[in-house]
From TrEMBL:
Gene3D superfamilies: Vaccinia Virus protein VP39 (3.40.50.150). It comes from the Bacteria. InterPro entries: RlmJ, SAM-dependent_MTases_sf. This is Protein involved in catabolism of external DNA. GO terms for molecular function: 23S rRNA (adenine(2030)-N(6))-methyltransferase activity. One of its GO terms (biological process) is rRNA base methylation. Pfam families: RsmJ (PF04378). GO terms for cellular component: cytosol.
Length: 87
């Protein structure tokens, strides 16, 4: 049986796309004046270091989230202000 460890793939292009779609979906659901539940049935560790360990083996994040870090022309869902602490 094959196993999957997300730490190898954290921040790659597919991960970025998944999170952008997730943000848009939550923004859309939030327009309605009703509460809703959001349950992530496939959640991983929640935070992954991209500077050490598994993520550095293939460095998939370099063609994903790393390409966006230095940009200042991103559309609204991408332009969420946060501080990356390096890990």
């Amino acid at each position: 049986m094959l196993s999957y460890r997300h730490a190898f793939h954290a921040g790659n292009h597919a991960d970025v796309l998944k999170h952008l779609i997730e943000i848009e979906l939550l923004n859309y659901l939030g327009q309605k004046d009703k509460p809703y539940w959001y349950i992530d049935t496939h959640a991983g560790a929640g935070a992954y270091s991209l500077t050490e360990g598994y993520a550095t083996k293939n460095a998939e994040f370099e063609t994903g989230i790393a390409r966006l870090w230095q940009r200042d022309d991103l559309p609204k869902p991408c332009a969420i202000t946060w501080t990356w602490s390096g890990g």
